[in-house]
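Note to self: keep these together.
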Amino acid sequence: MERPQKLIDQIYAAALDATVWPLVLETLEQMFGCIASGIYTTHLQRNRVSPVNLRGIDAALLDCYIGRFLCSNPWREVPALQRQGYVRTDNSLDRYYRKQGFYHKTELYNEWMKPQDFIHTLGINLYVDGYAQTKCFLYRPRQMRPFTTHDIDRFRWVSGHLANAVRVARRLAVEESSRKDLLAIIDRMTCGVLLLDTDRHIIQANPFAEALLRRHDGLVVRHSRLVTSHRGDERKLAGVIRCALAAHLGSDSGAAHLASLRRPEGRSPLCAVAIPLPRQTPGPFQAEKAAVALILNDPEQESVVSVDWLQQRYQLTKTEARLTRNLSQGSTLRQAATAAELSYETARWYLKSIFQKTGTSRQTELIRALLSEQIVIRNNLLH
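Structure:
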């Protein structure tokens, strides 16, 4: 049992760490007396191969297989032999066609297998869907005996564990790819993004937010918690995060989740918008989930949302668009009115019209929408 247990340990370690797959295949070769082995995925629609690990294959002949036999070979022409979990041997094609010696007359065998002394074979599809097949193979030379029924049964048993490991590895790879795609988008934003847990600990920060924190530019981390640089703004930050947490927990107070945070050296305040994230029931193996996203807009950064674009996007008048752009940069309504050369009362009247045209009902909702628009525009420009 020592070697099988070692193999099982290696298989599940490989599901989490791809660098372990060579050890898995080395152990398989030792167990089954093989000179070559491999696990790879064929992408059916692209006719492309992604090796997990291949051992004992001549590099030039591997290119030949991909170019010539990947899309056209006698195995691929028999869907019944491509089912997930079906163990194939060098006799499977003979049995399927009921022709003794059929396999040994194929071009694949004579031009690819035989020159490498791959005479006795075991193969299986560990994973199959409409887009990909992940395969495992073992090859013995002529001087070795053919695979016995006992060998096939052992290979089928091992393959069950291999298939489980492949499913785990695929799921982790898909989730990691999705996570990286989202992080790439967040990293390109021209505003700060902080993901916070229920105790205001930072789970994730994009480069823009990290730069603000390093400079103590409105926000800083003390004792692993997010706090304001200006002590007088701490209550405002706590308030917007508390409101967002209430919404996250399902008891929204209805208060605005927006705060203006003062910065050093008289710089324009940051506009901080706290957005509650969906609540999820934590699983037994889950890490701490983010509860609130804190979006930080720096009014001194050049806005991507232009007056002309706002006019086209929401059918705003030029005056309404100017006022809206000023608000998107974190200004209060009074500051935005002054910048747009409007009285405060006139700006309030315009704001009602802006709410109606943008489909929002509060200044917080308007700013959230404008921040989203700015993010989308910026990412489209970067692409």
